[in-house]
Each structure stands twice: as C-alpha cells, then as structure tokens.
Structure prediction request, 271 residues.
Amino acid sequence: MNEHAEHRLPTVAASSYLNTAPLIWSFIHGSRRGRAEVLTDKAPARCAEMLAHSEVNAALVPIIEYQRLTDIVVVPDVCVGSRSAARSVVLATRLNNLKKVRRVALDNSSRTSVALVKIIFQEFLGFEPEWTSAPPDLKSMLAHAEAALIIGDPAMKISTPQFRVFDLATLWHEFTGFGLVFAMWMARAEDAVRIRQLDFAGARDEGLAHLQEIATDYEQPVGLTPGEIKQYLTQNIAFSIDDEMLKGLALYFEMCGKYKLIDRIKPLEFI
Prediction:
C-alpha cells in the first residue's frame, strides 16, 4: 500500500437498510465521525462487489460471500442476524402453502437470503421450484412467479391481508432450532490492521445506545413508528453472535455446500 493511501481515511460500505443503522450510526453521527468514509447502497450484494473489487477497505457483506471472496478477514462478533423472526427477510405469496409454489422470484439485491430460500425448499420442503432473479418489486415479481423473496425495509411494508408472508428466519429456526447470521463486517486481509482500529464492536454498542435518535431519523423513510423501529432493532435483529447463531451459521454453510451454492467451505478467519 502506498504512503498516500495510508493517510487517507479508510472507506467502509454498508447497505442503507434500517437493520444496518446501529452499526454505522457512530461513524456518521457519533464519536467515530470523521474516522472512516461511509458509503451506503440499497443492495447488500453491491457491498460485496465493492469489497471484492477493492473499492472499499471494509464492508458489511452478506455472509455467504465470505465463502466466495479471497483474502478476506471477518470482524468478530458484530453482525446483522436474527435469533428467530427477522421481519425483513420474507417470502411473500398469494398461496396458503409453500408446497404449492412452482416458481420463486428472488430479490437480486440479496445474496445470503437467496441461498437460504433455496436451502429451505430443497432441504426442508423436499423439492426445488424454478428460480428467477428480479428487482425487488413485489407486484411485478408475483406477475411471473407464485412466491417472491423480499429483503430489507420493503419486506416490512408488505400488506399481510393481501399476501401470506413467511419469515425466513422463523422457518430456518423452526427447521433447525438455530438463529442465522445474514451479514458481517469483512475487510481485505491487507487492511486488517487499519480496520481493527475502527472498533466496529464499540460502534455497534454506541449505535444501540442511541436507538431513539435512529428511530426518529428512520421513521419517515422506512414508514414505521419509532416504537416499531425500536422493537425491530431490539427484538428481531441481533447485532452480536451467540453460540446458537454460530451453530446456525456452520449449518448454513454446510447446506450451501451440499446444494452447490458455494464451491468450498472455509472456516471464518477473524481480524
């Protein structure tokens, strides 16, 4: 790395979904403001691409991409995950039973959840529907498929009287007994020392201590009340990893390997 690059602020990328807010709040509004340049994009998949192409030093990356990227290390313990019901990773359908589904439209902004849907159908429901990839627009997705994978903030706005909404973290928990990790901070191995100094765990803790401000900031764009936002960020989303989630992650990787969704399984290498 040249000397000029050493003196630039490290760049980090994260999706702009509500579930990343506690992880990036410190860098944008809190005590770590000015210590990193934060780039946000609606699609978690785009964050993986930015890291893969060395456009950023670290990114909040869909967990499945760890198995596809090379020379990558993971920030320990900090995550976007769920111990049971995530609310923002769902399969929406007009049918009353997933076993009737013949074609599934997959949100092209997702990576981890796309693999999760494929595992749920093949491993737990016992069949494989036809898959199609589409931008996350529920109406157009369901014009061509019986079910649609929607992630992030749009997933929480689906009209439930009109659609049957299956929470994928709930389905995973019902079948396995485990929680699931959807994304973690990752960095290029060569940037590990610089990235460690950013203290992502401390940033998470500061963000979680400012949920009221986050709820106020996101009320308008997300379309939920501050109370609903706080409930989502405390009851649905987990920002640190417990033992059950680690077991769930190991099983998820194992299933991804079984159904050829990844070419290999490597253990997590932490910063």
In short: The chain has a mean pLDDT of 94. The CA atoms of residues 162 and 175 lie 26 Å apart. The radius of gyration is 18 Å.
